[in-house]
Write a structure and sequence with these properties.
three-stranded antiparallel sheet; eight-stranded antiparallel sheet; 6 helices; Peptidase_S26; Umud Fragment, subunit A; globular; Peptidase S24/S26A/S26B/S26C family protein; Mitochondrial_IM_protease
Length: 238
């Protein structure tokens, strides 16, 4: 049973998404000013904040994603801004090397982060506006095996299609996706070293990054209202 307060928070998220999505369509000329209000209410009453995506799996994101594949619940994001997507989020994005494919990776850095290599021959650089750095969870994999930003470099934020919030590996093995900190390198604080680049946020101390908590807070009401494990299991091909 979903509590009334959860319903209110869910409705607030849905209304915010409806406004953002409709305004985005208005700005690119897909709808005109007279259609804007109708689009907002249509998205609010008829739309959902999530969709399911089946992935064929692989070792890169184990154990969140089973090597044999599974069904994921993906949270829609109208605006890919620092208030909607966070370092530590697991995201569904277009494959930078295969434009027709999609991959699951974790956000390690956003625009404004300085990327620092543990190879002195590599020059540090700062991620530009609307760029992000994504990594595989399985750090035992080499860059070519993991197929993440250590191999193909920064990714445009516009390639992100949503945040993965629930993973169904089998009918009896499923649960919410943990949005957590990723290994990063801050000035004077070496947490872990990637094979190539790690990241630190310019002018921000390591204790200021509470991104994973923000994602869980935003997604909690959405999961409570829209999660249907039985329906996900029916669509699971694993």
């Amino acid at each position: 049973m979903v509590s009334l307060s959860t319903w209110f928070r869910y409705a607030a998220h849905k209304f915010e998404y409806s406004i953002s999505l409709s305004w985005k369509k208005y700005n690119v000329g897909q709808i005109n000013s007279t259609e804007l209000t109708d689009a907002i209410w249509k998205n609010f009453f008829q739309g959902k904040l999530t969709y399911t995506h089946w992935t064929k799996g692989g070792e890169a994101m184990a154990p969140i994603v089973s090597p044999t594949g599974g069904t994921l619940l993906v949270r829609k994001l109208a605006n890919l801004s620092p208030t909607q997507v966070f370092v530590g989020d697991v995201v569904l994005l277009k494959d930078p090397e295969k434009s027709d494919d999609l991959i699951i990776r974790r956000l390690a850095a956003l625009e404004g982060y300085e990327m620092v290599s543990n190879d002195e021959k590599d020059e540090p650089f700062v991620l530009e506006k609307d760029q992000c750095w994504v990594v595989a969870d399985n750090l035992a994999l080499k860059p070519k095996e993991a197929r993440d930003s250590r191999l193909f470099g920064p990714v445009p934020m516009t390639d992100i299609l949503g945040r993965v919030i629930y993973s169904l590996r089998t009918a009896v093995d499923h649960g919410p996706v943990e949005n957590r900190f990723v290994p990063v390198l801050y000035p004077s604080v070496h947490l872990i070293s990637f094979e190539t680049y790690t990241a630190h946020k310019l002018n921000v101390c390591s204790y200021c990054l509470c991104n994973s908590g923000m994602a869980l807070k935003q997604d909690g009401p959405v999961l409570a209202v829209e999660l249907d494990v039985e329906e996900m299991a029916k669509n699971n091909k694993a």
